[in-house]
Structures are given as structure tokens and as C-alpha cells.
Prior knowledge:
Blueprint: H1 3-39, H2 44-74
Helix pairs in contact: 1-2
Amino acid sequence: MGIGGLIAVGCGLIVGLGALGAALGIGILGSKYLESSARQPELMNSLQVKLFIIAGLIDAAFLIGVGIALLFAFANPFGG
């Protein structure tokens, strides 16, 4: 397997593990939001704002990983 194949495997791992982590993070975040809004419904509006901010940050971290994988795939800095 040449350097191009290893880069393809690395890009797949970056995107796959990033997607798995983002999905788990947003799933846990949503379940905790529902649990906390069921316990204290008067805080639902302020919790919803925080939910969307944190969900956006989790998604942004995943998209940064996709961008790095695209950098490795198309503008290979290792000269393969």
C-alpha cells in the first residue's frame, strides 16, 4: 500500500470517527436537555439557547475535521 492508500485510510478515519463523536455528543446533549427541561420547565427557554450554541460548536468541530481530511486528500502536504 502506497502513501496514497494510507492517506485515504487516514481521511476515512478522520471523517468516520469525527462523525461518530459528533453524533454521540449531540445525542447525549439532547437527552440531557430533555431531562433538565422535564425537571424544571421554567428554564426551558434559557436551556434551549445553550443547547443550540453547544450543538453548533460540536458540529463545527466535526466540520473542521472534514476540512483537514479534504486538505490531506487533495492538497497533500506529505508530497505523495
